Amino acid sequence: MPSPRSFLFLLGSARTGGNTETLARAAAEHLEPEAAQEWIRLADLALPPFKDLRHTGDGTTPPATGPERTVQDATLAATDIVIASPLYWYSVSGSIKNYLDYWSGWLRVPGLDFKARMRGRRLWAVTVQGDDDPAAAAPLAGTLRLSAEYMGMDWRGVLLGCGSRPGQVLRDDAALAAAKTFFTPETDTPGIRH
Ligand SMILES: Cc1cc2nc3c(=O)[nH]c(=O)nc-3n(C[C@H](O)[C@H](O)[C@H](O)COP(=O)(O)O)c2cc1C
Questions:
Q1: pLDDT tens by residue, 110-123
Q2: CA atoms of 4 and 14, how far apart (whole Å)
Q3: Is the CB of 22 inside a 6 Å radius of any atom of ligand 1?
Q4: Confidence label for 3 from pLDDT (cuts 50, 70 and 90)
Q5: What is the CA radius of gyration of the chain?
Q6: Which residues form the NADPH-dependent FMN reductase-like domain (predicted)?
């Protein structure tokens, strides 16, 4: 028996009740019951802007505290990390980008072993865009695929929906159909699915 999966959903929209969260929750409904789920709305976390300390002092990053510690602990507790970001300027939203920038600091926290501990964990993405053309999400998919590769993580691909106003993604029948099987462990096509 494989050990139960533990999902961390990072919500990156700059509004509540948006399409990306709707699509992510539609996909999460089909997770196996034993899978744990934690949802973090980055807009509510008040994570400060990332500071690059690589070439300051001894180049290490101090241990995380406050909201940084909250999201770091959640990241390290998850077997599966889901970046639920609206498509903003063809890529991830600013709050998601800020979260990912923190990974760079966490690589340099003495004793944390962030890279070694993240190796082999799965990275997924859910996104919704206003554009009808799925190619618009290619930079988002590329950013996350390459980041996963850098970290030695298992890139599991993007669930893509279309919609502009909140709720519109519920009219995207193809995305809702793809959501039903998106998190299936054996899915072997980590591209963009919609
Ligand atoms: C700052 C910003 C940038 C956006 N950039 C894009 C874009 O590059 N391509 C696109 O198709 N839609 C773009 N959109 C539209 C959103 O992707 C779309 O409205 C989506 O439904 C928003 O997700 P949400 O409902 O989860 O907030 C943008 C919206 C905002 C607010």
A1: 999 999 999 999 99
A2: 31
A3: no
A4: confident
A5: 16
A6: 8-133
